[in-house]
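Now produce a polypeptide, keeping tokens residue-aligned:
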Amino acid sequence: MVLATMVRAGPNYWKLFLFQILNGFVQPLLHGLLPYLGLMLVIFRKTLLMTWRA
């Protein structure tokens, strides 16, 4: 629905449409991945310390 109206409106709205995509998909993706990235960093640091001691 939104895509059809954007295409009909013309090329002026493509930047707005891309911004809407960024807001709609990238932000929740980042919010969902940030805790996992932190967890991976902690695990990576622990394994690095264990291998460093050995």
